[in-house]
Amino acid sequence: MRNFKSFMKEEDGMGTVEVVLIIVVLIALVAIFKDSIKKVVETILKKVSTNANKI
Fold first, then answer.
1. pLDDT tens digit string along 16-32?
2. Domain coordinates of the chain in residue numbers?
3. Quick check: pTM over 0.70?
């Protein structure tokens, strides 16, 4: 019984699981909002290139 309690208190693998879950959520958000993200990035790049020509 003592070994089981120490096993339940052990948290060594929790960091890896948390990082994997965060990555999965980020990938899902990118997949859902792919078109919106693409439009925003294209708009920003157009503004940057336009302003770069003014310099």
1. 778 889 999 999 999 99
2. 2-54
3. no
